[in-house]
Amino acid sequence: MKWFLILWFVPVVLLGSWYGLSYHDMNFGFTMLSRQVHDLVFQIYGNILGIEPETIPPLVFKAVAIDSLLVLAIVMFRYRKAIIKWVRSKRAQYAGQPAENEESLSSAP
């Protein structure tokens, strides 16, 4: 499970970091992080896919969001027993205690 999360997290972080830095032209002297390379990469992808380069970033964002939800669902399914146990313990912990509003009303003079 650890490697599954690492193999999902590292590419997402690298892609997001590259996109953010190159979009804002924060290149720190690296050509790969320049706005010209950013525009060239999306122009090439646009030509390959046959779509406008401006439409690619929202599509990538949607794909990453859906993949992230899928990974979250897999992790939650994997640890479902521990999650259920944690939720039940929190419910039991708060079941015996009065609500905040009731507590403040009972301590009023």
Number of strands: 0
Query: Per the principal axes of the C-alpha atoms, what is the gross shape?
Result: elongated
Mean pLDDT across residues: 87
Compressed to H and E, one letter per element, the order equals: HHHHH
Give the % helix.
over 70%
Uncertain regions: pLDDT < 50 for 5+ in a row? none
Structural class: mainly alpha
CA-CA gap between termini: 55 Å
Major sheet, described briefly?
Answer: none
Amount of beta strand: under 5%
Annotation field: number of helices: 5
Would you mind describing this structure in some detail?
The protein is elongated, with a radius of gyration of 24 Å. The protein is built from 5 helices and no strands. The chain is an all-alpha fold. The chain starts with a helix and ends with a helix. 76% of the residues lie in helices and 0% in strands.
